[in-house]
């Protein structure tokens, strides 16, 4: 998912990109509790190479891939792509298969077994193939981050890209 690694993070993005807390919670506050989730797609598919590498998945291993837009105050604020290996979606974590319009972050940060690995930051070219049409915007580079989370030591990858509508 990392599309452009030659960057210097602008000062105004640093608190959002480096925060290790719940982005969902911060967006709820920033939107005056008007945050909503729209699912772009959710399907079983083979993740991209960089996603497989981050999760330690072998080639051709399918996972649940969930792509959503987080809307704040009626504006598209964040594009999120989550990779949930099928081996993660077992036992008590099986309900993660059916999140519907609920934000994944709310569940992650309320799980006492959650451990988050270091955050990776990237700048994305608006035309990048890794972004869906709605997220491509008008030409301003977009900033995002990703990290591997572990629930009961089972991995999942969450990538978040801040869209032009997020101010």
Task: Provide a compact summary of the structure.
The chain has helices at residues 14-18, 23-30, 49-55, 104-108, and strands at residues 35-45, 63-72, 75-85, 115-116, 120-124, 142-151, 154-162.
List the helices and strands and how they pair.
Layout: H1 14-18, H2 23-30, E1 35-45, H3 49-55, E2 63-72, E3 75-85, H4 104-108, E4 115-116, E5 120-124, E6 142-151, E7 154-162
Antiparallel strand pairs: 1-2, 2-3, 3-7, 4-6, 5-6, 6-7
What is the level 1 CATH name of the domain at 22-120 and 145-160? Alpha Beta
Based on Cα principal axes, name the global outline. globular
Q: Would you list the SSEs in sequence order as H and E?
A: HHEHEEHEEEE
In CATH terms, what is the fold-level topology of the domain at 22-120 and 145-160?
Chorismate lyase
Q: SS-based structural class?
A: alpha+beta
Number of β-strand runs: 7
Question: How much β-strand is present in the residues?
Answer: 25-35%
Q: Helical proportion?
A: 10-25%
Individual helix count: 4
**Biggest sheet character:** 7 strands, antiparallel
Low-pLDDT residue spans: 1-6
CATH superfamily of the domain at 22-120 and 145-160: Chorismate lyase-like
- The CATH architecture classification of the domain at 22-120 and 145-160 is 3-Layer(aba) Sandwich
Distance between the termini: 23 Å
Whole-angstrom Rg:
15 Å
Q: What's the mean pLDDT score?
A: 88
